[in-house]
Amino acid sequence: MRRIGLTGGIGSGKSTVAAMLVAQGATLIDTDAIARSLALPGGSAMPAIAAEFGPDLIAVDGGLDRDRMRALAFGNPQAKRRLEAILHPLIGRECERQADEARGALIVFDVPLLVESRRWRAIVDRVLVVDASEALQLQRVVARSGWTPEAVQAVIAHQVPRPIRRAAADAVICNENLSLAQLEDEVCALWKLWTASASCATSGPA
Length: 206
Prior knowledge:
Layout: E1 2-8, H1 14-24, E2 27-30, H2 31-38, H3 46-53, H4 66-75, H5 77-101, E3 106-110, H6 119-123, E4 126-131, H7 134-145, H8 149-157, H9 162-167, E5 171-174, H10 180-203
Parallel strand pairs: 1-3, 1-4, 2-3, 4-5
């Protein structure tokens, strides 16, 4: 079973590519979804978050106040590292639990900060980067989320620059002027390549 690390900047189209890979038969492990679940009311990260950051970062329902935490983390790198120190080990354990239960030729780990976190390179067999210009990222996120351009730009500024992300990739999908059909063609081509190579690795030499 081949492990693919999927990453890309905010608004690049990474989630669309993930959905297309699932449609082909991949098992998706979404680290953002795991992180959100850990910080919901009753989530396993909440006791440590409450102890580390105090009641101001806890919403009325007992979960993480995401807007306040986002503002704090983007303005205070040390606070961001403190939050990551709580979440990342829990995310890692849940990823491995889901991977152990996966079936099929490919597991896709959707990891927004894959390049920033060096440990993922040792965990996955291939890295797929979905890339788009910052102007297009900004346009897409503002249109879909209602965030201000300044808020989106702050997120982009905290992610690694596009050249560094592309340099870490085994494959890059440039999702700049592609139709959905063209994007799907690129995803299908990679699916065929990686499932064929996984099959060859399993069968070994004749």
